Every structure is written in C-alpha cells, then in structure tokens.
Amino acid sequence: MATKQWLSLNAQIARLEERGMTIADRDYAQRWLAHVGYYRLSGYWHPYRLRDNAGAVTDQFAPGTTFADIADLYEFDRHLKNRMLSAVERIEVAMRSRIGYTLGRHGAMAYLDHTPFSDEFLTSGHHLEWLGTVTRRADRAKRRDPFIAHHFTNYQGQIPIWVLTEVLDFADISKVYKGMNSADRDDIARDLGVQGARKRNARPGAILANFLEHITVVRNICAHHSRLWNRNVPPIGTARLVAMDSFQGLAKGQDQSVFASLCIAGHLLQAISPGSTWVPSVTELVTTRLAPIAMRSEHEMGFPTGWQSLPLWS
After folding, report:
1. Could you tell me the pTM of the whole model?
2. On the CB side of 47, how many CA atoms lie within 13 Å of its CA?
C-alpha cells in the first residue's frame, strides 16, 4: 500500500496555494509549517475546505481563506487551552482538598476500607484498581517528594488520605470521587456550588461526577496540545442543570460543545475562587481573538446567540 510522500516546506506552501489558500507572506508561512507542522495545522484549516454536491469535504479551500487566518485561529485555540488549564488547576486542587477532608472524616486510612465508598465502586473492582494506581503513584513519589518519603520512613508507608491526594492526578481524583458514597459526594458538590434537580432525581454528587469526567477529557486535550476550540467533547445532560443559572444557553438534551466545558469551569470557579476574573478573560479572548477571524464564529464552539447576556457571562 502506498504511503504519502514527504514534501519540502516550499512544496507544502505550493500545495496549499494550488488548493486555493492565499499566502501573502511565504516566509511567515514557512516558519509556521516548520515549527508547528502541516499536519497539526490541517486541523485548523479543515473548516475552510469546500464540500462537493454530495456534501463530502474536498481538498479545495473556500474563497478568501488565508494562511494568516489559520495561524490566528491556532493562536486563539492555544490561548483558549491555557485558560482552560488554568481553571482545571484550581478545580483539581479544590477537589484534592475536599476529598482528602471528606474521606479523612472516616479515618486517615479510610480509603483502604469499604465504608466511604458505594457498593458499585467496591463490587465492580474499581476500588481495587484505583488502589493499585495510587499505590504506584505513591511509590514513585517517594523518590522525589520528601513529604511522601517521610511517611515511608517514619510510618511504614501509611499515608493519610489528605496527604495521598497530593500525588493523584485529575483522573484519579475523578474516579475516587465517583466511587464515594452518595452523602459524601453530595456534601462536596454543594460546597462547590452544584445543585441537584429534584424533579429529575439528579443528586448534586452525580452531576459533579459527570462534570469531572468531562473535564478530565478536556484537560487531556489541552495538556497534549490537541485542537480544542470546535471539538465535540463528552456530553453533559442539560435537563438536570436547570437549577443552576450558569448553564442557561446550553443545547437541550446532551451538550457536547466546548461552550459546555467553559460553563462547567466558570460555574465551579465561582465557588472555588469568588471574584475570579476567569470568565471575563474568556469573554475577552472570544470577542477579540476569534471574532475577527474570517469565516469563523463562536457559534462553532456551541455559544448561543446572545450569550453575553446570560447569567454566567454578563
């Protein structure tokens, strides 16, 4: 089977021009292709490609497509991912603290027991799987983190949950939160401003667990420098969010837009960091960096018409 052929930077530029992209500054385009790469940038010029009569995407670009706009879209996405990672950092630290505190009420080593966890988490084997993961993380951490080494040296490796949470990653935090008993999950969720929906039998803890699973995927997209701005991400059920004004404007049913991700982050930050300027910074980014780019719109991210007047964004 034939493979694609290697192309020089000049040949890459020529191919883009043949397909209808305007490249006003060839040196500028060559630097981008050299340091970012044709394949990575192709995810950003894909929305500019024309469709044929059957609706299939062609190799030809829409009239008016410029390399400068592709570069600007890439830069917008890079700044968007940085904003999201900033939010995730604060959410992760808050969840570490709240889980350590809440599980700690059952005992310093309660995470080894059955009491704090749901039957499903225990009987499915997820608890044992999670323990295996965190044991490996603690074992690695003792070689670089004195506070973990201290517990191996002086306490035979018995690490209290409020210490252990400091070596867990976001996925570990999300998994153990989902596995906690309903009462403890609800306590943490309410502390982070998450309200349930009685009519739909949606407990706050179940909603927050869904949020964390969603954010885990978004965090990984950002951390691995993948394209975020117009991606479909894990859906969140919107019907059970009616009690929280922050989620006005989401698509009905299941919303898998980046706008939903931004609403989750913005809502949680209101409780974690009151007075945070994160939401205004996202508004500024969208209106000043995305809006001027030809043929692109925040609606491709799931933003509804009139979004700036919605409670979270106004």
Report:
1. 0.94
2. 16
